[in-house]
Amino acid sequence: MPHRLIAARELGILMGVLAHPERICLIEELQAGERDVATLQAALGVAQSKVSKHLSMLRAHRIVAERREGRHVIYRLAHPDLAAWVADGLTFVKAAQDASGAIAAAADASLAQWGHGPDG
């Protein structure tokens, strides 16, 4: 039984790291491929310092990996299958809401960006 608690604790830590909307958006951007900080900053519309802070946390938890290209740091998902797991979470969010509500519409828009149809 202790092994279940260890695994559950680690999954809880992962969920805690993912429990910020901007970090989820970063994963959404990175699911399409590698990106540099400037590209991620433009896509999220937040300050470069916030993007760097979130990437640092994601990197510390081995969710993203980086490589250098000259002076630029390029980020990618360390485990691309994480993106599908997060997209599955969006389908759950959509299913838990009124189908005509703003949250369901936002989930549909995000799922479309993730390459999923409006019905998941």
General description of the model:
The model has no long low-confidence stretch (mean pLDDT 87). A 3-stranded antiparallel sheet has the order 1-3-2. Helices cover 62% and strands 12% of the residues. It contains 6 helices and 3 strands; from the N terminus they run ααβααββαα. By secondary structure, it is mainly α. The protein folds into 2 domains: 2-77, Winged helix-like DNA-binding domain superfamily/Winged helix DNA-binding domain (Arc Repressor Mutant, subunit A, Orthogonal Bundle); 81-113, no CATH class.
Strand content: 5-15%
Helix content: 55-70%
Low-confidence stretches: none
The main sheet comes to: 3 strands, antiparallel
- Spell out the helices and strands N to C: HHEHHEEHH
Radius of gyration: 16 Å
**Sheet with the most strands: spatial strand order:** 1-3-2
Distance between the termini: 35 Å
- The level-1 CATH class of the largest domain: Mainly Alpha
Write down how many β-strands occur, each being a DSSP E stretch of 2 or more residues. Answer: 3
Shape: globular
CATH topology of the largest domain: Arc Repressor Mutant, subunit A
Oligomerization state: single chain
Overall domain count: 2
- Overall pLDDT: 87
Task: Tally the helices.
Answer: 6
**What is the CATH superfamily of the largest domain?**
Winged helix-like DNA-binding domain superfamily/Winged helix DNA-binding domain
Show the helix and strand layout.
Elements: H1 2-18, H2 21-30, E1 35-36, H3 37-44, H4 48-60, E2 64-69, E3 72-77, H5 81-95, H6 102-113
Helix pairs in contact: 2-5, 3-4, 5-6
